[in-house]
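Input protein
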Amino acid sequence: MNNYKKSLLILLGISFLFGIFDFHYQNTISPLFSKLLDFFGVGENPLLLIPLFIYMLLPWYLLSLYALKVSKKKIPFKFKGLVRNTVLAYLISVISYYLHYVFLLFFVGLPNFENIRFVFSKDNLDYAFNTLFIPGIIEWGIGAIVLGFIVSVFNYYAIPYIAKQTRGIV
């Protein structure tokens, strides 16, 4: 197995684990930020939401930087390969996120379901996949494709430009 394929498999594994991490990350910071935003009175100033979005998207951007690193191992390094790797990493993360969601629902319980632990029945499986998993995958999968493309454009064009411009300053 060559170095690029090995790195790509590591990226996919990291993406899968990232989806699980993101589930807990989002559930941990949401209550903290809502208390903080209530304290600062966000209802009066929606611009105070900007740090929240930056904080929530930062792990996703870090994942895209790892996809950039993996993509640069492929010779020649092409934009299409970067987009493919970033979108693939994002899609794997979304699938992992919702698989973890369904897993928690069945085995642990979820706070928004009042810690209900579903049993394995056809009705409950249909509910979990048709109400939670499939709609979530479709909705956030489309978002992963769009965000992956936008972030790839930024990483491919803007980062080298910014690095080139700042070399003279530093």
